[in-house]
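Exercise 7b. Backbone tokens:
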């Protein structure tokens, strides 16, 4: 089982940047895909981005051009670089393994965009 752990959330001003990390030992050797989701208070969980084992990436329309997903196989970590942050990006961000790996969710990391 590959269990992801998120980190890197925090408070940032509108227009600022944050980089989230999702570390999952065994992620690379098991050729897992990884998704990022987010859930704002009182709203349904929303898919944000994914990166598959071959490196293909996809983004939700709401973040395309502002967020970049990448991975470092050497440290079994997937990153979500978030630029030009908006108040509506405020949410708990979760990563989830998938593809050839069982679906396992992390515990989430809070991102708050506010002045």
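Sequence design result:
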């Amino acid at each position: 089982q590959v269990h992801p752990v998120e980190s890197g959330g925090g408070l940032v001003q509108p227009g600022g940047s944050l980089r989230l990390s999702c570390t999952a030992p065994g992620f690379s050797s098991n050729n897992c895909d990884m998704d990022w989701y987010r859930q704002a208070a009182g709203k349904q969980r929303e898919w944000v981005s994914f990166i598959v084992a071959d490196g293909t990436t996809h983004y939700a329309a709401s973040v395309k051009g502002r967020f970049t997903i990448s991975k470092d196989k050497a440290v079994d970590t997937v990153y979500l670089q978030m630029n030009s942050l908006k108040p509506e990006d405020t949410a708990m961000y979760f990563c989830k393994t998938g593809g050839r790996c069982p679906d396992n969710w992390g515990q989430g990391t809070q991102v708050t965009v506010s002045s």
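Instructor comment: The chain is about 0% helix and 50% strand. The mean pLDDT is 96.
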